[in-house]
Fold this protein.
Amino acid sequence: IKILISVPRYVKISSQPTIEKIEYNNTWRVLFSLSSDRILKPNDKPYEIKAELLLNGKNISEEWKYLWYPY
């Protein structure tokens, strides 16, 4: 399984992404840390982070989206 993560240019993935299968409900969890040298101001739009899981080049999950406000 491959983890595909998309981050804006000011954001860095600061830990090795990992994936965990949650057996009791047959779902997946992706874990990773983010960092940025650029602090957002109160009226700035948040950074959009996207992730999805691929198996043999095909999606096996929905695309997860997260709005991140570094401060």
Summary: The first strand starts at residue 2 and ends at 6.
